[in-house]
Amino acid sequence: MTLLRISLIRFAFAVGVCAGISACNQTDATSEKENADPRAATHVNNNIIQLPHAEDFPLVTADSSLLPEELAVNGSIFPDTNRTVAVNALAGGRIAEIHARLGDRVTKGQLLMRVHSPDLANAIAALKQAQADQQLAQRQYERNKFLYERGAVVSQNDYQIAEDTLLDAQATTENALTQVKLLGGDANHPSAFIEVRAPASGVIVEQNYAAGAAARSLDATPNLFTIADLSKVWLLCDVYENNLSQVKLGDSARIRINAYPDRPLQGTITNIFSILDPNTRSSKVRIELDNPDRILLPGMFATATFVSQGKTPRIIVPAKALFRLHDKDWVFFPAGGNQFKRVEVKAGPLNRDGTVQILSGLEAGQQLVANALQLSAEASSINPLAFQEVKKETP
């Protein structure tokens, strides 16, 4: 009897211990449930989140509006070819002096360089010889004329020969003088050096020779200098062939020069090149710009936003209704109850009134969260795994 009683006591004690442990576990679970954050979010799936207070996130309605199409492209400043002047020497020779360099501003008539020209030296020598022959012919003619008029031994034939010789000498002198002028020389101050002067005011945008180099004649290339009047310049933009249908002659352009981001400019498309670069698959679009202060320099980079003359229906939403994540644009739709669905959209240009054009992923009349970034931040603060990008496993 004693052993049986001890066994019963031990069994009863074990049952009591198990019951106590179970009761403690139930109490702890109840306590954790009672102490849980009432604002906790439920992560339903990668694109849907459930929040306890959906009323904290007001909604807006996607609107439709007629807006012009816009296309942003890159470009560079170039001189206006109608305002550029090539500078060449009228005769070949060796460059003795250079008085202007690439990038200098020059005025019309300013001395740019001096070229020693053997051709000019020969032309001057021929001119001097012709002038000497003319002087001799002039003295012989005057002598024969004096004697002939006084009935001396000079015949009429000798007098006429002297006159013809003088006329020939005068013609030879005129030809030699013309040759000197054509080669850029000055008959009043004969010299073998040609002074190359600026034919127009502007900026030297090209220089192809240095002192001591051999300069070619007028009909040879390249030019000694190229001078450009930069009071008007061109902005040449590259437009890819799949975007050419979006630009038309007369379309306006908003221009931002990288060197002067705080000085926006306005322009108009004046030409669309009729050739396509086979390497870049792009064509040039030209915009003519006034440059009275000469701040736009050849080679400067710029961004142009072409604005079409016609208008197209576009979906617009406030900029705050979008947020960017994983290099994509997203909006939030109400999904019933306290749930919100994240949807990817393709955003277009930002309008000046703070709205954004939606190119795809949204229709007019749909409601979406007005402040997407606020909702995303709220969901992430409660559940750090909310809206994490799902990576595909490599098999």
Secondary-structure blueprint:
Elements: H1 2-35, E1 42-45, E2 48-50, E3 59-61, E4 63-79, E5 84-87, E6 93-98, E7 105-106, E8 111-116, H2 118-149, H3 156-182, E9 193-197, E10 202-207, E11 214-215, E12 225-228, E13 232-240, E14 252-257, E15 260-272, E16 282-290, E17 301-318, E18 323-325, E19 328-334, E20 339-350, E21 355-360, E22 367-369, H4 372-382
Helix pairs in contact: 2-3
Detailed description of the structure:
Helix content is 26%, strand content 37%. It is of the alpha+beta class. The chain folds into three domains: 200 residues, Efflux pump adaptor protein, beta barrel domain (Elongation Factor Tu (Ef-tu), domain 3, Beta Barrel), CATH 2.40.30; 69 residues, RNA polymerase II/Efflux pump adaptor protein, barrel-sandwich hybrid domain (OB fold (Dihydrolipoamide Acetyltransferase, E2P), Beta Barrel), CATH 2.40.50; 69 residues, Orthogonal Bundle (Helix Hairpins), CATH 1.10.287.470. The strands form four sheets. It has a six-stranded antiparallel β-barrel.
Question: What's the end-to-end separation, in Å?
Answer: 70 Å
Put simply, the count of helices is 4
The overall pLDDT, averaged over residues, is 82
Order of helices and strands: HEEEEEEEEHHEEEEEEEEEEEEEEH
Fourth CATH level, the homologous superfamily of the largest domain: Efflux pump adaptor protein, beta barrel domain
Strand order of the largest sheet: 4-13-16-15-14-17
Number of domains: 3
